[in-house]
Design goal:
Strand content: 5-15%
Radius of gyration: 19 Å
Number of strands: 3
Structural class: mainly alpha
Length: about 180
């Protein structure tokens, strides 16, 4: 499988021989997914930061907290796919800005419960509406059926990847990694 630097990666991921012929990193699904995620984050940053003064990570925290309603830091980190330490720093900044409120956790005196402030909820809802529009543009070349299929396929890959991660984490107990949420 020869190609120059500017050609697209092969799409025959299901064929064992095609996988064996993978020429470089561009032929890896995980690489292409990371590139798409990074591009999506840059698009979000260009549309969110100038209007709302928050980063894509801060937006993700607000959006996840919006659907969780109230959660301790660790649960929020799991659902957002962030490490607990990353979440702690981000939440602290959002508390300082008045977008997140905290209260005592009646089930665990060592932790606090986090929830959006009214201003945080307003911003989260506004950005979510704009994010739907950005997503429509990103998916514009796909039919409604293809969009649905893509979403289902990504969910299946996530489920398989989460199972692989969980298995690897059990055998690599020397590492202290936070788990992404399987939902």
């Amino acid at each position: 499988m020869s190609r120059n630097k500017n050609t697209a990666p092969s799409t025959a991921f299901s064929d064992q021989s095609a996988r064996a012929e993978a020429e470089d990193i561009r032929d890896l699904f995980s690489f292409q997914l990371q590139r798409l995620a990074a591009l999506s984050t840059r698009i979000a940053a260009l549309s969110i930061r100038p209007r709302f003064g928050i980063t894509p990570r801060e937006w993700r925290v607000l959006a996840v907290l919006s659907y969780l309603k109230e959660a301790p830091l660790q649960r929020l980190a799991r659902h957002a796919g962030l490490l607990k330490s990353q979440m702690s720093r981000t939440v602290s900044l959002l508390i300082e800005r008045g977008l997140i409120q905290r209260s005592s956790n009646p089930d665990d005196g060592r932790s606090v419960l986090l929830r959006l402030s009214p201003e945080g909820e307003r911003i989260a809802n506004q950005i979510l509406a704009e994010s739907h529009t950005r997503n429509e543009v990103m998916l514009a070349d796909l039919s409604a059926a293809e969009q649905h299929q893509l979403f289902d396929l990504v969910q299946r890959v996530f489920k398989t990847s989460f199972a692989q991660y969980s298995s690897m984490k059990k055998s690599a107990s020397a590492f202290d990694l936070d788990e992404p949420d399987a939902d």
